[in-house]
Amino acid sequence: MPDELQIRVALEPACSLGEVREQPLRMNEVVFHALYERTARPLFNYLLRVSGRRDIAEDVLQESYCRLLSAKLPEMDETQTRSYLFKIATNLLRDRGRRNEDTAIETVNTPGAMANHVDQAAMRQAFDRLKLRERELLWLAYVEGASHKEIADSTGLKPGSIRLLLYRARQRLAGLIRGDSRKKTKVDA
Amino acid sequence: MNASLCKYEQEVMKALRFGPLSHELQAHVTGCVECSEVVLVANCLERDAHSMGEISIPSADLVWRRAILRSRAEAAARAIRPIQLVVHASIAVMITAIFWLILGSPAWLRSMPAALYTPILHTVRGLWVAVSFAAGLVTMLTALFGAVYILRTDCVPVVRVRHIRASIRITTTI
C-alpha cells in the first residue's frame, strides 16, 4: 500500500498537467528519447561547427527539438524528421546571425588525439573563416552525406544552385587548408 | 561562372562514405583537381566530426522538460487571451462611458455662449451615442465568445481524472 507521500508525489505532475490543457506534443517521451538518441549527435556537431560556439549550439539544438515537438505537421519518417530538424536549426542559426547576436566565433577544442593533429587544427581554422552558408553546405554534403535536394530543403536554397555553391565553398576551403598547412610547414621549418 | 564540375564527383563522394576508393576512382582522383579537393575536404571534415564524439550534448530529459514547459506556457497564454480581450474591451467601454456622461449632462456647458454651444453639442452628442452603442455591442459579443471559449477549453475533466488514475496505478505497482 503506498504511503501518503508517494501518492502526493505521483499526483502533483498529473494535476498540474490537467489544470491548463497544454498543446499535445508530437510524440510521447519514449519515442522522443529514441529519436533524440539517433539524431541529436549529428545535429549538435553540425551546429557546433557551423556556429563555432558551444552555447549557441546547445541552445539551438534544444530549440530545434522543442519546435519539432510542438509543430503541427503531417506524419514523417525518420529521414524527413532529421531533415526537418536540420532545417529548423539552420534557420535559427541564420536568425541569430541576422540579429548580430553571435558575431565572434571561438575555436571549440575537442578532446582526443585528432584535436592535436596539425592538419586538423589548420582545417578547423580554415573552416571557421568560411561564410555561414559555406559551412552549412560543406558540413551537410561531406559529413552528413546529404543529397543536393536534402541540402536545398535544409538551407532553403534552390536545388539547382547547390552544386555550384558547393563547388565554390569546397574550392575555398581546400585553398585555405592548403595555405594554412604550407604556412605551418614554413613556421615549423 | 563556368565551374568545371567533374562527372565523377558524386561517385567519389559516395565511395568515400561507404569505404575506401576503388583503384579506378583512386587513379581518377590523382589526376582530377576537383575530385582531389573533394577527397581532401571530405577526409578533413570527416576526421573533425569523428573527433567531436566525446563532446557532451544536452540530455534528452532536459530537452523534453523544456518542450513540456514551453507547451504549458503557450497553453496558459492561450487561456488568458480571451480574458485580456474582455479586459481591454471593458476599458474601452469605460472611457467611452466617461465621455458620454460628460457630454450627456452638459450643465457646465450651458454657461457657454449659445452660438458655440448648440450646433457643436448636437453633432458631438449624436456621434458619442453611436460610438458608445457600438462599443457596448462589441464588448457583449467579446464577453460571450470569451466565455464560450473558456468553457470549451476547461471542459476536459475526463483527461484529468485519467492522469490521476494512471499516476496512482504506477505508484501502487512500484
Largest interface, C-beta closer than 8 angstroms, per-chain residues = A-B, 63 and 53 residues
What share of the residues of chain B does DSSP label as strand, in percent? under 5%
Residue share in β-strands of chain A: under 5%
Rg for CA atoms of chain A = 21 Å
Q: Can you walk me through this structure?
A:
- Chain A has 2 domains: 24-104; 115-189, Arc Repressor Mutant, subunit A (Orthogonal Bundle), CATH 1.10.10.
- Chain A is globular and about 50 Å long.
- In chain A, 72% of the residues lie in helices and 0% in strands.
- Chain A starts with a helix and ends with a helix.
- The longest helix of chain A has 30 residues, at 159-188.
- Chain A has helices spanning 4-19, 29-51, 54-70, 78-98, 118-128, 132-142, 148-155, 159-188.
- Chain A is built from 8 helices and no strands.
- By secondary structure, chain A is mostly helical.
- Chain B contains 6 helices and no strands.
- Chain B has 2 domains: 9-53, no CATH class; 78-173.
- Chain B is mostly helical and 174 residues long.
- Residues 157-162 and 164-174 of chain B have low confidence and may be disordered.
- The radius of gyration of chain B is 37 Å and the shape is elongated.
- Chains A and B meet through helix 1, helix 2, helix 3, helix 5 and helix 6 of A and helix 3, helix 4 and helix 6 of B.
Briefly summarize what is shown.
The complex is a heterodimer of chains A (about 190) and B (about 170). Chain A is mainly alpha-helical and about 190 residues long.
